[in-house]
Design a protein that fits this description.
Layout: H1 2-6, E1 15-19, E2 22-26, H2 31-47
Antiparallel strand pairs: 1-2
Length: 59
């Protein structure tokens, strides 16, 4: 499975991940959703302390 994942080539812009033995491909962000997420992140960054970090978490 790992060899197949490492040899994987997908469409440009897609992100491929190996999650619990399954290859998952995610399309690139696009449109209104991307704009909203960018605005939200910018607002959070502006109000956060200089060295603020948030742990990554898989839900």
């Amino acid at each position: 499975m790992l060899a197949a994942f490492l040899d994987l080539t997908g469409p440009e812009g897609y992100r491929a991940e190996l999650i619990e033995g399954e290859i998952v491909a995610t399309p690139p962000p696009d449109g209104d959703h991307e704009d909203a997420v960018g605005e939200l992140l910018w607002q959070i960054a502006r109000k956060s302390p200089p060295n603020f970090t948030a742990p990554a978490r898989r839900v």
